[in-house]
Amino acid sequence: MTLAESAPRALRSTHTESKIARAPQFTLEYTSGAIWDKSIGDFDDVCTEQTFAFAARRWSEFVHEPLIFRRGGDVVGGALMLVRRLPLGIGSIAVGKWTPMIGRRTDGDQLAVYKSIIETLIAEYAQRRGMMLTLLPRVSPLGDRSEVAFLHERGFVEASNVPFPNRYIVDLRPAEDVHRKALDSKWRYHLQRAEKANLQFDVATPDAFPAFLEIYQAMSDRKKFPDYSAIESVPALLALEDESLRPQIFFVRRDDRIIAGAIVFKAGDTAVYLYGATKDDALPLRAGYFMQWNILRWLKANCRARWYDLGGCDGFSGLHQFKKGLVGKAGAIEPMPAVHHYAEKRSTLAIGRAAFALRDVVLIARHHLLSRSKNLAKPDLKPRRVQ
């Protein structure tokens, strides 16, 4: 979809980028998806969900609106918003997942920047265009709740959350010897055993994705985990022009044969574990421990990330124990914030919340049906009650 097609009719421009609105201190610009993915690679808050390459495939039913925020001409942040008109024309919603993104969190005024961006989004989507504005805030590795607190202060209404919201986040800043001691003792024991198994760690190139996909699909069939991922979007991410945004593929080999693999998003201040896979014979060799420890070492040496987000556990106790042990004392287990809604009119908020509530009912029904399937593994942890 082109910029001219995705921008509001009154704001369409023949220019590649078009200034369209102002809030205190900030200028808001629409841009194209191609330019967007070339502009966000050095943002501290950049994540997979905020790349156009991913969002255009994952949420193709939405109109994608990439926004750049400037202060005095300098880029301070951005947001890839997803806009959708509700059935029967009863309203529209603008959704931002793990957004807004702040360019630099080390400048000392990140909360002030965040607040100004939120005001800009409210002015554009809720006030000028009359939509319900929905945001899914980013997870704070430090447990900082100030951004979510501001959303509440500004009148956002907290809505639903996922059943298993915890994210397992490793602190990459300690020196390697200090970090090793911070691992859970049992996790460290398994790592020591793995290091005696004659395993090799391999940093692969993007053209190795088919080899990863082969073991990923085989593992999914073996473990019978329900797959809600967007692994079909990986080729587009690997083809991004900005090398920093391309995920990194890793393999573990034994006797030159691949037995485990992982795909990690490495840009920004938080690297993210996207996908992992193992073959049957990787388990007794503890290849997963060997792989994750060496990924940590590689991230420390080769990118500017301060954190490594291992994702969630989807209710499986085995994943919980593995990730909790890797977090150890050098990191934290932090819950993902709930969805937050805002609208200027009560009727707009009610319609938008009803649309999300219907979506939640559909998702819960789908999960219930999958949980009754004899062909899929079932979570064995108790979910958090959905608000």
Description:
This protein is an alpha+beta fold and 387 residues long. The protein has two domains: 3-164 and 336-371, Aminopeptidase, CATH 3.40.630.30; 166-334, Aminopeptidase, CATH 3.40.630.30. Helix content is 35%, strand content 24%. It has twelve helices and 16 strands. It has helices at 3-6, 33-39, 52-58, 110-128, 146-153, 176-182, 185-194, 209-223, 234-238, 287-302, 317-327, 346-371; strands at 18-23, 26-30, 63-71, 74-85, 92-97, 101-102, 132-136, 157-158, 166-171, 200-204, 248-254, 257-265, 270-278, 307-309, 331-335, 340-342. Strands 1, 2, 3, 4, 5, 6, 7, 8 and 16 form a nine-stranded mixed β-sheet that branches. Strands 10-11-12-13-14-9-15 form a seven-stranded mixed β-sheet. A hairpin with a 4-residue loop joins strand 12 and strand 13 (270-278). Helix 4 (110-128) packs parallel to helix 5 (146-153). The radius of gyration is 21 Å and the shape is globular. The two termini are 35 Å apart. Mean pLDDT is 87; it is low at 1-23.
